[in-house]
Design brief:
heterodimer; A: alpha+beta; Ubiquitin-like (UB roll); DNA polymerase, domain 1; 2 domains; 5-stranded mixed β-sheet; globular; B: alpha+beta; Aldehyde Oxidoreductase, domain 4; 3 domains; 7-stranded mixed β-sheet; 15 helices; 26% helix; 21% strand; binds FE2/S2 (inorganic) cluster
Amino acid sequence: MALTIQVNGKSHEVQADAETPLLYALRNDLGLIGTRYGCGIGQCGTCTVIIDGKPVQSCDVPVSAVVGKQITTVEALGSDAAMHPLQQAFIAEQAAQCGYCSSGILMAAKALLDVNKDPSDADIRKALEGNLCRCGTHSRILRAIKRAAKEIRGA
Amino acid sequence: MAQANSPAPAPARKLPGSLDTNRRLDRWLNINADGTVTLYTGKVEIGQGILTAVMQMTAEELDINVSRLRLKAASTAFSPDEGITSGSRSIQESGLALRHVAAETRDLLLTRAAQKLGVTLESLTVADGVVSARGGGSVTYWELATPDLLAREATFDVTAKLPQEHVVVGTSLERVDIPNKVTGKPSFVQDMQPPGLLHGRICRPSGPKATLKSIDFKEVEQMPGVVAVVRDGSFLGVVAEREEQAIRAERRLARIAQWNNGPDLPANDPRHLLTLQAQAESEVINTKGDPATAGAKQFSAEYTKPYLAHASLAPSCALAHWGEGKDSGKVWIWTHSQGIYPLRGDMAQVLGLPEHDIIITHAEGAGCYGHNAADDVTLDAVLLARAVPGRPVRVQWMREDEFAWEPFSSPMVVKLNAALDDQGNIVNWSHELWSHAHSTRPGGKGGVNLLAAWHLEKPLPAAKPGNPPLPGGGSHRNAVPLYDFPNQKITNHLIRQSPLRTSALRALGGHANAYAIECFIDELAEAAGADPVEFRLRHLKDARAKAVIEKVAKMANWKPNEKGDGERGRGIAFARYKNLAAYIAVIAEVHIAEEVRVIKLWGAVDVGQAINPDGVINQIEGGMIQSASWTLKERVDFDKVGVTTRNWLDYPILSFVEVPEIEVALINRPDAPPVGAGEGTQGPVSGAIGNAIYNAIGARLRDMPFTRDRIVAALSA
Ligand code: FES
Ligand code: FES
C-alpha cells in the first residue's frame, strides 16, 4: 500500500505493507542508510531516529504508525558544510572506532540536548541507556556530547 | 640468464613486513598525474583506525600531505595478499611495508628530479611532492611519475627516516573515516544498494549438529516478493525483493522446517574441558631451572572463562553478484572478512570455480574483534546469488543468527601452582591450561572453514581447528610468564574439537592466561605479605615492564598495601601482549553493592613507537571497556540442542550507565619498533578487576564472569 511519511522536512510516499518497520522504509525506500540495523527488536539503538522530538528506535515502529509525524534522521542533523555541533564534537574527540553505533547515538544525544541544554554526566548516560557500543568508545562519546552541549550554549 | 650455472643464492634477506612476499612497488603505490597518490594495502579497516596510521607512515616517507593519499579498499583484483588482518599486526606488516615502498619511491622520484634539473641529489629538498633544487628550479612528483616508475621490485637500498625526523608519524592525525560515519554516509557493506538489489536471509538448523529432515516450501515461494527459496542439504535460504519480505519468508521457513537435532551437547561448563583429557594434545611449552623445586610454602588455584561472543554491533552482512551471459561462472563479492585471499581460497573449493573468477572486495562492517561470522555470511550470499544470476543479493544475518552461529572464543581452564621461599619470593611456578582451538578461519588446511559448506547436500569437511604457534601462540598465548622465576613449567592441553565452534577473539588464549597469572600473583603477594606493585616489580627484570607498572601506580596514586573497605577496592595487573608486543599495566577500582561496578580504570601503555598516539589511546580505551564487559557480564549459553543466547537481553554488555571512567597514559618510545594496541589490555583488565574485588570484599572470584550470583556465593562461602 502507499503510505506518506514526513522525513527530514519532506513528504515521501512509500509503497510497503503497513507493518513494515520504519527502519527498512528509511533505508531501502528513501536511501537514508545512516539509520542502521543492529538487532531489530529495540535493544541496541543503532536505528534511533527522532520522531516528533523524541528518540525512537525505528526498527520497532511500523511505518503506518508514523504517518503524519515528523521524522528526523542523521542525514538531516547537519550538512557537510555546516555540521551540527554534535557531529563536530564527535570528530574533535575522535569519538568512534568502527562508527556503526554513531548515527543512533548522535540522534539520541540530539533529542537530549534539544530539551536539556546543560545535561550532567548522569543525564547523558541515562539518555544513552538504550544505545550500545561494542567497540568501547563510551568515554569519548560522553566527552563529545558534553563538548557539543557547551558549544550550543555558547559557553 | 644462465640459471643452471649461477652460484647458490646467498641466504635471502627479508624485506620489511608484507613487502617480503609482495615485492612489486606498484602493487602498493601509484603516483597519479592529478597530484594524488593511490595506496593499496591488503589490510582492512575493522574499526581500529589502522588505515589512518598506515597512511601517516606512507605520507611521512614520501614527504607529501596525507590529504593527497587515496586508499583503495582491499580487493583480490589488485591488492597485495596480506593474509588476515588480525593479531594487532597491521602496523608491523602493512605499515612497515608501505614505509619502505614510500621511501624507495621517493628515492626513485628524486633520482629523476636530479636528472631533469641537472643537479645533484644532495641539492634537492621536497615539500608536499614539490622537489626543489637549492640553486633554483623545481619539479613535482606528478610531473616526474610515469607508469614504469614503480614497475619494479623493492630493493634493500633505501633507508626510512629516523624517528627524530618524523613530522607526520607520531602526531594524532584525525581518522580519515570518521566524518562520513557521523554524517550518515554509506560506510559499511550493509549500506551498499546497487541497482536491482535483492535481499537474502538464511534459515539455520536447530543446533550445530542438526540436519534438515524435511521441508515443503511451496507456500513460501508464493509469499509476496519472494524470488527464490534455496535448499541444498541442510542449507536453507530465501531471496526476496524487499528486506522485510525476506525476513517474513525466513520466519515462515523456520516455522515449517523439521530438523533432526543430532547428538546432545554437553553441559555449559568450562571444566568440561578437563573431562576431554583423552583427546588433548598435551605439550610442555616451556621449562626453566628445575620444575621439581620445592619452596617453603605451596599454593594452587584454578581459573576459568566461558565461551564468549564477538557480538559485533552489526550482525554480519555480505553482498554477492553472480554473473550471467558473458560473465556467467564469475562472482563478485563485497565482504567485511578480515582475509579476502584466504576466503577466496575456501570459496573456490565450495563453488568449484577457479580463484580468479571469484572477485572479492573488502567493504567495512562493524568492529569485529576477531573471527566473527563475516566469512560465513559471505558464502551464504554467494549461494543465494547463484540462484538469481545477474542480480546482486545482500544477505544480512539477523541478530539471533549472529549470536547463535558466530564462532565463539573458547572456554578455558588454567591451573596454577607456585611455591614461595622464606623471603616470600616465588621460587617455582607451574601453569597448565586447557582450551579448544583459537583459529578456525578460512585458509585452514584440509578443509573449508565456512559454516554453510558443512550444511550442503555434499558437505565439505571443516579444516582441522588451528592454534597459532608460539611465540605469539593461540591457546598458549601469554602462558609463559614474563616474570623472572628461577624454576617453571608451562603445559598446554589443546583439545581441538569443541561442542560449539571456536575461533579467534581479541587476544585469543592471552586473555585467560594473563588474567589467571595476574590474579595468582596477587594471591601469592598476599601470602608473602607484600604489596602487589612491589611484588610484581621484584619479580621482573624487563625495564619496560617495570616502567608501565610504576607509571600506572603513580597515575592512580597507589598506596602500598592499600586495603579496600568492604565495598570499594582496587587491584593491579600487568602483561606484555604475546610477550613480544605492547606492555600494559592496569589498575581497576570497583564498587560492590548488589553487583560489581567498575568505577575507574587506569592504564599505562608502551607500544614502542606510537604512530598515531590518540589512535592508540582510542584502541586501548576500547579494549579496556570490552574486557571489563567480558569480565563482569558475558557468557554464551547453550542447551542440549544449541545456543540459547539469541539477543542482547540474553547477552548483556556494559552499558553507557555502567562504563567506568578511563584514564590512559602512553609511554612513547620512538626508537622502539611500533606494535599494535588492539588486544593487549584484555588479560590485564580482567586480572585487575579480579584483584580489586578481592581487595574490596576479601573474596577471590576465579570463574568469569563475575556476576551477582557469583559474588553472593563467594561472600557466603
Ligand atoms: S536495530 Fe533498532 S534497536 Fe537495535
Ligand atoms: S564505535 Fe563500534 S560499536 Fe561504537
